[in-house]
């Protein structure tokens, strides 16, 4: 299952995300999304892990404080296609 993690601190790393979510199951991947131009964090990321662990993690982590920010955690939704201009 792919999990969306929002409201991340600007200093959060991929390793921080993996460490946080690995308490609930095996993490396949953890990525903080960065701005292409600046390389700075965009304040959200995605974690991929097994379904059972993901459900537990969403319940446990959503709304909790992590590095001074209250996280928004839910199951990732497919990206909507946007028209190109």
UniProtKB/TrEMBL annotation:
Keyword list, A-Z:
RNA-binding
Keyword flag RNA-binding = yes
Domain annotation RRM: ranges: 1-78
Does the record bear RNA-binding in its keywords? yes
Pfam families per the UniProt record, alphabetical: RRM_1
Q: What GO annotations for molecular function exist for this entry? A: RNA binding
SMART domains, per the entry: RRM
Q: List the PROSITE patterns hit by this protein, alphabetically.
A: RRM (PS50102)
Stretch list, region Disordered: 65-85
The name this protein goes by in its record: RNA recognition motif. (A.k.a. RRM, RBD, or RNP domain)
The protein's organism comes out as Desulfomicrobium norvegicum (strain DSM 1741 / NCIMB 8310) (Desulfovibrio baculatus (strain Norway 4))
Q: What is the lineage of its organism?
A: Bacteria, Pseudomonadati, Thermodesulfobacteriota, Desulfovibrionia, Desulfovibrionales
């Amino acid at each position: 299952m792919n999990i969306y993690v929002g409201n991340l601190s600007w200093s959060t790393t991929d390793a921080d995300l993996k460490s946080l979510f690995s308490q609930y199951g095996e993490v396949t991947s953890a990525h903080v999304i960065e701005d292409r131009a600046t390389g700075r964090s965009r304040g959200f990321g995605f974690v991929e892990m097994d379904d059972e662990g993901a459900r537990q993690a969403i319940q446990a982590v959503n709304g909790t404080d992590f590095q001074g920010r209250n996280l928004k955690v839910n199951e990732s939704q497919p990206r909507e296609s946007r028209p190109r201009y």
